[in-house]
Backbone:
């Protein structure tokens, strides 16, 4: 795509967790890529309220990460998810969705706001980190990884407003999603990964 000037005023990144047990975060950037808002949510209702009422939503591009469904990675049940293990009648947990790898949390809400005319895209946070040169040098989402990511965002991408104390992993990932929203707004090249629940999931080329 040919690069063009940004028409939108706000660029919103949402790092979405697969359940209310884990935090989700939203980041709003302005046209100069300065952070206007960085906040955390836990409950789907709070995220939906933000998407429906925030003044930043209008005249914006929204980029939401696709969370992985880790419901098969709990204790003894993960042995039944192995592709060489036969499923018997005794297997009750996630029996009908044992091959499911992506979570459809809030997909209906995102599809609704898209149908209302807002520009919404999905993304894979791991792919974006690699494409922006922010790949994890440590185990993902551990304290060393978060510290490395935060320092890289400050030094490499000029987010000087980030504090010295360490932010949550979801907050840092939300910044990366918002960066990708500005990339899309500039008309720079993107690649279609897949379409998830009616919304395009895009990737940033290396």
Residues:
């Amino acid at each position: 795509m040919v690069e063009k000037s940004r028409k939108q005023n706000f660029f919103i990144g949402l790092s979405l967790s697969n359940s209310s047990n884990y935090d989700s975060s939203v980041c709003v950037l302005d046209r100069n890529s300065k952070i206007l808002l960085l906040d955390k949510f836990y409950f789907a209702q709070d995220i939906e309220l933000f998407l429906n009422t925030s003044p930043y939503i209008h005249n914006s591009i929204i980029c939401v990460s696709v969370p992985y469904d880790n419901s098969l990675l709990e204790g003894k049940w993960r042995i039944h998810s192995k592709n060489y293990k036969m499923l018997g009648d005794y297997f009750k947990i996630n029996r009908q969705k044992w091959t499911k790898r992506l979570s459809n949390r809030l997909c209906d809400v995102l599809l609704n706001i898209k149908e209302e005319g807002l520009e919404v895209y999905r993304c894979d946070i791991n792919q974006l980190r690699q494409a922006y040169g922010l790949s994890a040098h440590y185990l993902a989402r551990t304290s060393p990884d978060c510290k490395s990511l935060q320092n890289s965002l400050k030094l490499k991408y000029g987010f000087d407003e980030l504090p010295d104390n360490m932010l949550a992993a979801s907050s840092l990932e939300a910044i990366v999603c918002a960066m990708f929203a500005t990339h899309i707004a500039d008309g720079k090249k993107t690649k279609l990964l897949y379409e998830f629940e009616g919304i395009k999931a895009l990737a940033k080329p290396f």
User: Anything to note?
Assistant: Residues 169-185 form the longest helix (17 residues).
